[in-house]
Amino acid sequence: MTRYIVYRITLMFFVLFGVSIFVFLLVRLVPGDPAELLADQWATKKDIELLRRQWGLDKPLITQYLVFMNHLLHGDLGNSVASNTPVAKEIAAKFPNTLKLAITGTLIAIIIGAFAGIISAAKPYSIFDNISMVLALLGVSTPAFWLGLMLILLFAVKLDWFPATGAGTIKHLILPSITLGLLTAGVIARQTRSSMLEALQQDYVKTARAKGLRETIVIYKHALKNALIPVVTIVGLQFGHLLGGAVLVESVFGWPGMGRFLVDSIFTRDYPVIQGAILVFATAFSLVNLGVDLLYGSIDPRIRYE
Amino acid sequence: MRGRSLSGLAKGMATIMLFLMVAVALYGEQPRSGGTLIVSLGTDVPIFDCVYASGIPNLGIIHLVTQGLTEINPTGGEPKVWPVLATSWEQSPDDPRVWTFHLREGVKFHDGTPFNAEAVKFNIERMINPETKALARSSFVMIESAEVVDEYTVKIITKEPFAALPAQLAYSPMCMNSPAQVQKLGNKDYYTAPIGTGPFKFVHHIKGQEVRLEANEEYWGGRPYLDALIMKPIPETASRLLALEAGEVHVAYHVPPRDAQRYMSDPRLGIEVLTPPQQRRMFVGMNVQWGPFKDVRVRQALNYAVDKQAIIDSIFLGLTKPMDSPMPPTALCYSPVKYYEYNPKKARDLLAEAGYPNGFEVTLHYGPGRYLLDTEVVEAVQSYLADVGVKVKVVPLEWAAYSAMLRKPLEETEIQMFFIGWGLPTLDPELGIGPFGKEAWAPGLNNMFYSNPELEELILAQRAATDPEERCKIVKRAQEIIMEDAPMIALYYEPQIHAKRKEVHDFVISVTERIDEVLIRNTWLETE
Q: Are the Cβ atoms of A165 and B239 closer than 8 angstroms?
């Protein structure tokens, strides 16, 4: 087990190394650079070149990459060109917000999605099943900004229960979490339903029923445990995505998270921020994946890590 | 110069006082102290330091803490430049490169250190020193040096005579920071605890969430009525407006005309629409070195082909006016020199005369989402031009890619036509007509690659002019030449549309798009 974890973490470093090169090149391949964008509109060619030199963008790519790597290995992600503040500091301020939203959003999604999925599978083609699957389809296909705006309109403007936008208190967290949760719940519900339906047709479920076990025990103990692996995979993937920031939801609710931060930095071609943020995402995503893989073992003891 | 600006200023102040008195008499409403004003912009302040920040409304928030020497008259009226920390100024008659600024006496920074000539010198040097890496350094490089004359007098010397200096110093990236604080924290970390002379003191800035300021009890203009001011960035327009309607914010910047109309027609919402004067010129530039645009008749034809007034009425609810000068009506020395009325027949005749009776094909680039309803405008222009036979292929590009394209010099440019807005935050002809000269060819602003020998001379002449009337004469001629040469399809001045809740009184958004750093003192809240 320990050997497996060490192996996976070593592998992760190679992945991150690859990501760093990929992002570094990609941001420099797209047209536009920060000097052209941020220079005052009255700037001359000389002024733009001066800015480029200040940010080290006039050096050959390989030198720029080595400088970036050297700083990175010393724990320094560099300074944002748009705001001249350390990228690490900005990420440290924003990542917790993203984490909060991702965790609460995922929890809501799991509760709603798994519940709906299990009941639907237990009573397939019943009214509940039909309704919840239509709702799940709606959840999957509703645009995030529309749902967010509707929730604001109802709960902030009409009912005045929650603040419309901003962050800081638990109250601020509720509407964006529900938006994310509802949007993600659909996927989880559908996945849970289909893998539960499959499990419920297995022989061991027939055996359990034949033994005269109560239906709840059959469903929750025998079927669910075996149906869980694909669900956990989906939840892990969704959670990983949310750690990358939910750009639309963050924009609608004025939530100071990583998604908006990254998108804004792409619009200003803020290379150090883009690089830093993507590396943080890649790390978070890899760690979540590792966590999911380790979970498999505890869900299904047949899985061994050699 | 000094006497002129002072008497004009006195008149301006008197008018405002009178207006306020009448308003008070009419409504019997007395300003009251207390409360926190919450303002929402579409973007966050990138960093709380003028030197490194960008975006005019954002810089306006910074100016509530760290003020400038001068500011632009928020109404766009005369005199164009208002005193803030400088009370008066004059250009030396013997050497027009030398300007003397007289400073407001007895002003203290929030840290208790005195605001004086040393502080001005320090801040100007901070801006122009390349080591500082100021983003707007290019806007101040005409300054050679600043010299302390005495405690409250400072001399600013420009490399060449530069008539626009007092207006230029009002440009947002220039503000007066406490030298003691900058030295204590260092250039890089100064933003964490900025210290100025403004009506508000900096409390904190949580990135992406809020800027919080508190009233400066010792403010030289008298303590503001408000206890505090919060700026919340809400990027999504619909959410920003919902927050306004829910009463979570008092002021929302950038309201689409459709919503403005809703607020105006439904008083129950308790929201007032603010339409401060405009200064941004919206136009479709034409690369005059490209194909058919080499012929001035073609460029004029395209101007006649577009119904500007119809665009304004249908897209902007009539909230602005069509361009009749390369400068906005709020600019110093503006004259309405030429308006291309809608005349498709004349357009077709001119095109035929120029040898394009059947029109031609051309590509128009733009960066959607940057300006108010830009896509709608571009589509309207496209269909008007189609009417006279000019087939426009519209290519939308993401803003950064579009900017990169605009920065390309003539040898590399792919620009044929482009839709753009040029702000004129100083309301001065320097930036009003200067960008139409060869000096400003891309990577500068001039993507039309337009130049006219007489205009080049006029641009230099207005810069060196010391007599204001003489300067306006020069500038008038320059406006005529530009409109006649028509390097752009002159469209309209971008309307500023913002909204505030009714309980907010005496709140002013300036022609420059900033919350006015001086008048904010008078803003008060009815409830709370």
A: yes
Taking a C-beta distance cutoff of 8 angstroms, is the pair B425, B70 a contact? no
Judged by phi (left if over 0) then psi (alpha if -120 to 50, else beta), residue B143 lies in: beta
- pLDDT for res B26: 54
Task: Decide if A122 contacts A201 (C-beta within 8 A).
Answer: no
Residue of chain B whose alpha carbon sits nearest to that of A169: B209
Kindly state the tokens that stand for B431.
């930036």
Task: Answer yes or no: is pLDDT of B8 > 70.
Answer: no
| Spatial separation of the C-alpha atoms in residues A146 and A155, rounded to whole Å | 14
pLDDT tens-place string over residues A107-149:
999 999 988 998 888 888 888 889 988 998 888 888 888 999 9
Tell the residue number behind the tokens 């005749």, with chain if given.
B349
CB pair distance less than 8 Å for B431 and A251 = no
Could you give phi then psi for residue A254, rounded to 5 degrees?
A: 55, 40
Band of residue B4 on the pLDDT scale cut at 50, 70, 90: very low
CA distance B280 to chain A (A): 13
**B202 to B54, B195, B217, B231, B334: CA distances (angstroms):** 18, 7, 13, 12, 38
Q: Which amino acid is at B357?
A: P
Peptide bond into B396 cis (omega under 30): no
Contact B481, B452 (CB under 8 A): yes
Determine whether A31 is exposed, middle or buried from the number of CB atoms within 10 Å of its CB (0-12, 13-18, 19+).
middle
Is A82 in Cβ contact with B409 (below 8 Å)?
Answer: no
- Residue B11: pLDDT band (50, 70, 90) is low
Taking the CA atoms of chain B, what radius of gyration do you get in angstroms? 24
Percent of chain A beyond pLDDT 70? 99
What percent of the residues of chain B are helix, what percent strand, and what percent coil, each to the nearest 5? 35, 20, 45
| SS3 at position A91 | helix
Our measurement of the distance from residue B16's CA atom to the centroid of its chain's CA atoms, rounded to an integer in Å, reads: 22
